[in-house]
Specification:
This protein is mostly helical. The protein folds into 2 domains: 90 residues, no CATH class; 87 residues. Helices cover 64% and strands 0% of the residues. The chain is globular. About 5% of the residues have low confidence.
């Protein structure tokens, strides 16, 4: 299962003194403090169910290399086996208790749907409050209302989306761009010249889009702070 995203991962405060961690350090040295976190981070962006079944020593080496830890395939195989031995991974490469400690990853789609529904409800409520249609006036008050004496006074001009809604929209777009850039980083360099050129071109386009969206966010936050 693959659904790149930028959600955070949960790491227990006692991780560095946990018995599994200390056993791993005994087997592989100080790198044992970093290996689990590196794989958790990779899963958060690429395998949100915590299942690395089918990954080869070469692929594990590439993952560690993408996290600035260079090693051979043989060494990667030994390190991963050490993680299996101490219990950080099962024999078929499923991260230990991933669904318990990082349930927000496993339930990503459901949580995303809930957040979208909640956001839409907030937008609808705020739009009704800030830019919705005016309440209909009836009874004696209607005769003295500005709209009764001046028909144009009751005209409601279309308003742009509330600033908070614009910020959420741009922030979501930026998240998607950053996620795709991370996917490119984690993917091995292509060998063919055509593929390399396409990758370089896509990276440049994403970098430009990232800069543009960040500028938009900066301006929107300024408008929100100043009320202009």
């Amino acid at each position: 299962m693959s659904k790149p995203n930028l959600l955070s991962i949960n790491v227990a405060v006692g991780f560095f003194t946990n018995s599994r961690t200390l056993e791993l350090v005994e087997l592989v040295g100080e790198r044992g403090f970093f290996l689990p976190v590196m794989l958790w981070s990779f899963c958060a962006e690429n395998e949100i169910d915590g299942n690395l079944n089918g990954y080869t020593p070469k692929r594990f080496a590439q993952i560690f290399q993408s996290k600035s830890l260079t090693m051979t395939e043989t060494e990667a195989k030994r390190l991963v086996q050490a993680m299996v031995t101490v219990g950080f991974m099962s024999a078929d490469f499923v991260m230990h208790s991933w669904d318990r400690f990082n349930a927000h990853m496993c339930n990503f789609e459901a949580i995303k749907a809930q957040k979208k529904a909640a956001a839409e409800a907030r937008w609808a409520k705020r739009a009704e409050t800030e830019g919705g249609s005016p309440k209909k006036i009836s009874g004696p008050a209607a005769a003295s209302s500005p709209a009764a004496n001046n028909p144009s006074a009751g005209t409601v001009l279309a308003k742009p989306a509330p600033i908070f809604r614009q910020i959420e929209s741009v922030d979501f777009q930026l998240t998607e761009v950053l996620a795709e850039m991370q996917r490119i980083r984690d993917t091995p360099q292509p060998s063919g010249p055509g593929d390399k050129a396409a990758r370089t071109k896509r990276w440049a386009a994403l970098a430009e889009e990232k800069q543009k969206l960040r500028q938009q966010l900066k301006e929107l936050h300024r408008q929100q702070a100043t009320g202009i």
